[in-house]
Amino acid sequence: MIMIKKTLTLIAALAAALTAFAQVKVSVHETAQDQPVIPAEIYGQFSEHLGKCIYEGIWVGKDSSIPNVDGYRTDVLEAFKALKVPVLRWPGGCFGDEYHWMDGIGPQENRKKLVNNNWGSTVEDNSFGTHEFLNLCEMLGIEPYISGNVGSGTVEELAKWVEYMTAKEGSMAELRAKNGRKEPWKVKYLGVGNESWGCGGDMTADYYSDVYKRYALYARNYSGNSLYKVACGASDYDYNWTKVMMQNARTKMDALSLHYYTCKGWTGSKGSATQFTTDEYYNVLAKTCEIEEVLKNHFAIMDAYDPDKKVALILDEWGTWFDVEPGTNPGWLFQQNTMRDAMVAALNLNIFQKHTDRLKMANIAQIVNVLQAMVLTDGEKMVLTPTYHVFRMFNVHQNATYVDHGRLQRLRLPRRRRQAPCLPGEPVPGQARHRGARLRPAEAEDRHRRDPQGRQDQRVQRVRQGPGRRPRRLHRCESDRQGREAHPACRLRRRPGNPIIR
Q1: Whether residues 147 and 294 fall in one domain
Q2: Which one from 132, 163, 195, 292 is the annotated catalytic residue?
């Protein structure tokens, strides 16, 4: 009996302690009818004829010693199936504006070879073309996203490509049947050019807006297939391009694209994918989080011309871009993948999910062996990257209802909750709390002033909490008199609305 009473007393005490430790109120929504649905295409992928993305990465040919299904690598196919890829962009990229689709159809042994002038001057045999790409998408239930050649192609070439893929009757349908495919494919997404401000034609926004309307006009809908036409958009901070396109062509397009890479810079070293300091780590995370501000700025311009949001924004190239791995072809853009890349992927996907009223698709670059890849291959060997596992974890959110995290209301924080390090002298609302320790703002400023070198590198400071109390540890990050601007780690953590630390 005594033992039972002691046990009940212990349970009651433990319950009381847990209640005191943290009281959290969560709002549970009985209905989510007012919440947006996250388009599956937000988790899209991008494949380009670049390095070993297509050849060796996806396609090895039927006669390869590498296990394959009709020429597609078996291990990569299985990886794609588990990933539940919703949409795949092809053939470029910059390659797309030099790709002539007629060279990639018919018997593979008769196809013309080409030199990939954009990426490493690789000679390709064109064995992976329209049929191979669309059949791959059909096998895996992937929505194809075709990037049309505007830079070096013609209006007629793009128009006939659309007819070849989607028409049931006519000369192009007869040619397709001759090449082994009687029934047309379903092709929804058509990109009219890629980076037309650069590798896709070096055009101005005004000039391209007229070119786009001409190409888009002759890309017809055949046999019940309805094209979703995507105009070439800006690179990250080029807001004028978005403005001009919305002024001149908004009624002729379904979407406008945007490209944004997490990259140190376009001249000199971009940094190593695997060898980096703590500051470089946080600089990459800070840079990738800037995408939300960039998106909002483009949204604002589009809202001014299209308040009903009839024109979508499609982020069809994004991800990390570092220096290539030593010893590899610099034109192949092969880089390794670490947990830093996984963090970048997760941060971006969380941002994208918040803005799907205008953002309808995002395609990370690229799916195999290039930039922030899902899969890396080396001959018969294959490895899944940390980024792959992030996308696999997130695939449950495809077409799911988005619930704003702001509706989870925390009324009282745990007393001993760990918080982000703050800088000495930085304004603190009320009292700074850290593992139960209390430090008044005046004390922090005084400690900073007493440092004769004007710099602190104190990983641990001891702060007394009151008479007779044991000193507590207070962790602080390295800083100087420049405040938060001097330390990217703190700058990232303290940024309002940052998704890492709420």
Answers
A1: yes
A2: 195
For 115, residues 6+ apart whose C-beta sits below 8 A from its C-beta are 121, 122, 123, 124
Q: Which helix or strand (DSSP H or E) is residue 146 part of?
A: strand 143-148
Residue-wise pLDDT tens digits, 28-78: 554 556 788 999 999 999 999 999 999 999 999 999 999 999 999 999 999
Name which of 116, 203, 197, 196 is nearest 149 in CA terms.
196
Query: Per the structure block, which two tokens stand in for 257?
Result: 């694209």
Q: Is 317 a catalytic residue?
A: yes
What whole-number distance in Å separates Cα of residue 448 and Cα of residue 431?
A: 17
Residues 444 and 400 in one domain: no
Give the count of domains, the chain: 2
At 13, the pLDDT band (50, 70, 90 cuts) reads low
364 sits in which H/E element: strand 359-365
Would you call 169 a catalytic residue per the annotation? no
pLDDT at 447 over 60: no
Q: Can you tell me the mean pLDDT for 424-442?
A: 36
Distance CA 401, CA 354 (A): 11
Whether 439 and 298 map to the same domain: the answer is no
> Is the distance from CB of 125 to CB of 111 less than 8 angstroms?
yes
Judge whether 248 and 305 are in contact, CB under 8 Å: no
Pick the catalytic residue from 48, 143, 163, 317. Answer: 317
Please indicate, yes or no, whether residues 286 and 348 belong to a single structural domain of this protein: yes
- Over range 300-325, report the average pLDDT: 97
The Cα–Cα gap between 358 and 236 comes to 16
Torsions phi, psi of 492, nearest 5?
-65, -45
Radius of gyration for the alpha carbons in the chain, expressed in angstroms and rounded = 27
pLDDT, mean of residues 385-405: 93
**What are the tokens at 138?**
């059909």
Which of 4-18, 85-99, 181-195, 441-455 is the least confident region? 441-455
412/406 Cα distance (integer angstroms): 15
pLDDT for 456-480, tens place per residue? 333 333 333 444 444 444 334 433 3
Q: Which of 441, 424, 429 is nearest to 483 (CA)?
A: 424
Same-domain status, 437 and 374: no
Domain-located, residue 13: no
